[in-house]
Amino acid sequence: MEEKCEIKKDVTELIGNTPMVYLNRIVDGCVARIAAKLEMMEPCSSVKDRIAYSMIKDAEDKGLITKGKIHYETTGPEIWRNSGGKVDALVAGIGTGGTATGAGNFLKEKNPKIKVYGVEPVESAVLSGGQPGMHLIQGIGAGIIPTVLDVNVLDEVIQVSSEEAIETAKQLALKEALLVGISSGAAAAAAIKLAKRPENAGKLIVVVFPSCGERYLSSPLFESIRREAENMTYD
User: Where is the Tryptophan synthase beta chain-like PALP domain positioned along the sequence (predicted)?
Assistant: First the structure.
């Protein structure tokens, strides 16, 4: 007998249908049973998963939200305006794919010669035809090709290792005074690779830094600094 496939097509199918479990050891004296609905087992560990999904789906069904719409209407025009229309390339890490899709399509409409580069981890290079794998670049490289991503907008996908991403993020803090996250380090590493190519001499490459580094204080990004602080001695 053929087994029923239980693999979900995407993470949204995991929202809802959370389990219930009886409380057994803190119910002394109770004459009724208590069953807990475990909403912390939602994909994002909150009952708010249901609300967020419902709002987004309703907006999509009404045509109010389309792939990359926010970045098409805001990020793309801002890059175009701030660069005076001189941007030659856009580099963005691929998480949901919204930034590359929205901003990339807007910029290519303005100038079809503009190149759009996606960034993914070497260790999970799915967009490049590889297999999903573990890595340390939070926010990108989910191991799937995101449904939001318009793969046709990408001219190339640049692979960056976790080590490169972390080291580049550190260098951005030390040398540029920019406290950014690991995915920003990955995007910067990719942009640097591109900026070293002879064919890009004199061109303007815009790289998107999606998050601040302060939320990564407990991550491998600051591990060496934590060890240094822990080993400090005082006279």
Answer: 11-62, 72-210
What DSSP designation does 85 have? T
Q: What does 97-111 look like in DSSP terms, one character per residue?
A: SHHHHHHHHHHHHH-
Locate the domains of the chain by residue range: 11-61, 69-220
In angstroms, the CA 56 to CA 97 distance is 16
Instruction: Decide: 144 and 126 in contact? Cβ < 8 Å.
Output: yes
pLDDT score at 116: 97
Contacts of 170 (CB under 8 A, 6+ apart): 185, 221
Q: Are 219 and 110 in contact (CB under 8 A)?
A: no
3-state secondary structure of 27: coil
Taking only the tens place, the pLDDT of each residue in 54-100 is 998 898 889 887 878 889 999 999 999 999 999 999 999 999 999 99
Supply 227's token pair: 């060890």
- Residues near 158 by Cβ (< 8 Å), separated by ≥ 6? 91, 117, 118, 119, 120, 190, 193, 194
Distance CA(232)–CA(114), nearest Å, equals 49
pTM: 0.75
Backbone angle region of 8, left / alpha / beta, with phi > 0 → left and psi within -120 to 50 → alpha: beta
What is the CATH number assigned to the segment(s) 69-220? 3.40.50.1100
Mean of per-residue pLDDT scores for the chain: 88
Q: How far apart are the C-alpha atoms of 217 and 226, rounded to whole Å?
A: 9
Q: How far apart are CA 180 and CA 173, in angstroms?
A: 7
Two tokens, residue 28: 């002394």
